[in-house]
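For this section, I looked closely at the sequence of one protein beside the tokens encoding its backbone, which the following lines show:
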Amino acid sequence: MKTKVIIFVGGAFFLFSIGLAGTAYGQVTDGQFVLHMGAAYAKTTEKNAGSGFVGFDLYAGKMLTNSLCVGFGVGYDIVSYNSEGGLKERLAIIPFQAKVLYFINLSQMMQLYVSLGGGAYRAIPHLSREAQSEDWKIGDIAYTTTQPGGSVGIGLDYWFLLVNGVGFAFEYHLFSTDSENFFTYFTARVDYTLIRF
């Protein structure tokens, strides 16, 4: 009987301790490092674009306060993809950005955030000869170029197992081209998130 009571009390104390730890470390806070990495669906809204395709992203930042995070992000987004008659055409964008995230606590283990980023965008088209002509550009892009640009976004992180989490985000990107127009695209992401002390 005493053994059962000791096991029950010990188990209850263990669960109570984990519950407190989840409350204490269930969110990213001041002084911690945060990492977001995952996959995305990317699509441009420009003329002559194909269907959207996959992308990948990585963001690492440092919390300056309990709400403000500053860091760097990089991605690889295929924003246009066509496959006809064995010929595959795609337009890939690689954003290199400095990003600021502002977190808003929704619950003990859930945080909403808004993001603002700026940096360089590398556009890499893999187009047929016909697509490289003036009439077949995707937006204003027909050749590899690097241009300045930025992004705005909104996301949601759900923290579980103390320092691990899953996140969802939507970002809108735009960057300049050699013409007077901007090239725009959006990404919808699913991320694995990690807190480091």
Observations:
- The first helix runs from residue 2 to 25.
